[in-house]
Amino acid sequence: MVTATVPEQQVKIGPTQLLINNECVNSVSDCRFETINPTTGEVICEVSEADAADVDKAVEAARAAFTSGEWRKISATRRGELLYKLADLIEQNIDELARLETLDNGKPLQDSFGSLGLVIACYRYYAGWADKVQW
């Protein structure tokens, strides 16, 4: 795991692979590209570069999950609970996520906290709608 520095704190860089079918995998081509800190011009890390073959794998996995996966069988209420849980996890890790966002985008840390607050609110909004199915 790579560790990058931001003002007065270390930020851990997690998996740099593609997430397909709930697994971190290298791209089919094994190509990678550098992610650059726009503030300093330094390389943060290298990440897997997806191409058409990777998109095809991801679409195939998503289609399988939709047609026969567990998500399809989960009740609307449970889906809402899971979206609330995701919002809670983002909120619990907001400091680390904001620092990663600032490192990657070069924007002020306070802006990253604000953006993540909106992300949390969005997930909670849609979690509340998950079981409000009307025909």
Index terms:
flat; two-stranded antiparallel sheet; 4 helices; alpha+beta; 135 residues; 6 strands
Listing every helix as H and every strand as E from the N terminus to the C terminus, the arrangement reads EEEEEEHHHH
Which residues form runs of ≥5 with pLDDT under 50? none
Form type:
flat
Strand order, sheet with most strands: 1-2
Instruction: Characterize the biggest β-sheet.
Output: 2 strands, antiparallel
* Residue share in helix: 40-55%
Distance between the ends: 48 Å
- Rg estimate, integer Å: 18 Å
* Residue share in β-strands: 15-25%
Work out the helix count: 4
- Could you tell me the mean pLDDT? 90
Number of strands: 6
Class per helix and strand makeup: alpha+beta
How many discrete structural domains?
A: 2
Q: In a few lines, what is going on in this structure?
A:
This protein has helices at residues 52-68, 76-92, 94-105, 109-129; strands at 2-6, 9-13, 18-20, 23-25, 32-36, 43-48. With 135 residues, the chain is an alpha+beta fold.
What does the secondary structure layout of this molecule look like, with pairings?
Blueprint: E1 2-6, E2 9-13, E3 18-20, E4 23-25, E5 32-36, E6 43-48, H1 52-68, H2 76-92, H3 94-105, H4 109-129
Antiparallel strand pairs: 1-2, 3-4, 5-6
